[in-house]
């Protein structure tokens, strides 16, 4: 069960499904095999109707977040330090399901597949890079390989400061990443210019609610100048409660001014 403290914003699981520290009650978790029953012909027909669009598959593996939903965030962090056998067995079952689901979507005529996990706090990763390498890097490697082996791109979303895993994701072949680039510092991402497409937002923590119009212009320009090389950036503006409508409009207008000069 999720607990929400702010309407319209996803909350956090406070009553998880798996309560036993040894994961003895993991049988309570339902793996949704029924998601594999979608109609491939219908998907391909829809793709044919929208052939001028860039289309994503209809699934989104999120192993780290899924495990938090099942076990609870704090419990999962502790479990990763001393994993019970039943938890590791469930990792394999969950990953196998995600691989089969991605493969079926990869066999359709969509252009790209998608995955997500919010990996960052404001300043760093939520777990150690060593644990990330041990448990989650192999999963992402398989997901990206499935996409590429079928001629699809792989996109990923991950909020927070994920600077320490970006080189690892590039090594795995990730094509595009939706992230909080201002949380990490746009200048710190310059080293990845041309290696990864940043599908990144303008700072919604500070600039969008509180920035001046000139600060908005400078922020959009910095993203474009720092990341655009070889298709290295997708213009994006995400906003929520507290956003200044004038700043939102200014972001779109700033991108409109800059984008024509970047074509080709």
Give a description of the structure:
It is a single chain. The protein has 264 residues and is of the alpha/beta class. The protein has two domains: 12-179, TIM Barrel (Alpha-Beta Barrel); 193-264, no CATH class. The protein is 44% helix and 8% strand. It has ten helices and six strands. The protein has helices at 40-49, 63-71, 73-81, 85-106, 129-149, 166-172, 181-184, 207-210, 213-227, 245-258; strands at 2-3, 12-13, 112-116, 153-158, 176-179, 197-198. The strands form two sheets. It has a four-stranded parallel sheet with strand order 3-4-5-6. The protein has a two-stranded antiparallel ribbon with strand order 1-2. Helix 4 (85-106) packs parallel to helix 5 and helix 9 (213-227) packs parallel to helix 10. The protein is globular. The relative contact order is 0.09. The model has no long low-confidence stretch (mean pLDDT 93).
Overview features:
two-stranded antiparallel ribbon, 4-stranded parallel beta sheet, 264 residues, 6 strands, alpha/beta, single chain, TIM Barrel, 44% helix, 2 domains
Concise synopsis of the structure shown:
By secondary structure, this protein is an alpha/beta fold.
Radius of gyration: 20 Å
Task: Outline the biggest β-sheet.
Answer: 4 strands, parallel
Note the overall shape: globular
Q: How many strand elements?
A: 6
Query: What order do the SSEs take from the amino end to the carboxyl end, as H and E?
Result: EEHHHHEHEHEHEHHH
Helix content: 40-55%
The poorly predicted ranges are: none
| Average pLDDT taken over every residue | 93
N→C terminal distance: 49 Å
**CATH topology assignment of the largest domain:** TIM Barrel
Assign the CATH architecture of the largest domain.
Answer: Alpha-Beta Barrel
